[in-house]
Sequence to fold (272 residues):
Amino acid sequence: MTWGHKIMGVMDRFRLDGKVAVITGAGKGIGAGIALALAEAGANIVLAARTKADLNRVADEITLLGRESLVMPTDVLDFEQLASLVEATIARFGRIDILVNNAGGFPPKPMLQTSAKEFEAAMRFNVTTAFELSRLCAPYLAEKQDGAILNISSVAGEKPTPCFSAYGTAKGALSLLTRELAQEFAPRIRVNAIAVGSTRTDALNTVLTQEVEQTMVELTPMGRLGEVEDIALGAVYLCSPAASYVTGDILGINGGLERLNMQMPRAWGGMG
Fold:
């Protein structure tokens, strides 16, 4: 297939050979799945999360794929550690091509039981950390003029639901940050996000009883919960040359949800 003056196969556009990707929250779940998918596509991976043992397990799998990895135990809430993460990446690989801001989260909680301190903590964990690491990585991402930032957001940031005032607001802010940075960093760095739906991870499994799962599946148009692989495949696309004309986009990988597939209590009675 001919693309302008270049002849390149369609599947070649999804390759990441020679690229270096920094991924937070990479020890398990969606972060680990994205790390392995990007490695399979050809990238070398910098793995950042708090638990070294988890990172080592992912690193071993990356080695089996024939790629290199750098294990960096990191608390994203510590900005000095974020700076060290970037410095170590440059020292090891000499470049950063892809940044995946995956670390984040906050449990559902009624607004009236959520303190201002907890609300601010949700914003810092989900938004401020992504802002800071993007700021630190941007000069390196811009060097090759084809850098990519991928933020892992949530359908909760788009579809208001009771008990998600902290998490939903934070993820909504992360999605808006994605669009803001896409405008500011174009054309050298593309910035996109994935609005994740209910996806089978260790975190979800802690609350996933048979009854809860049945309700969630019934409320999901595609009739199933998401798998880590679903998110990882979208990440490969958005981080690859296949998406070279895509920036500022929030890709929904959520089974077609038009509202969250959880029944949560309203403040003064009833379910929403």
About this structure: The mean pLDDT is 94.
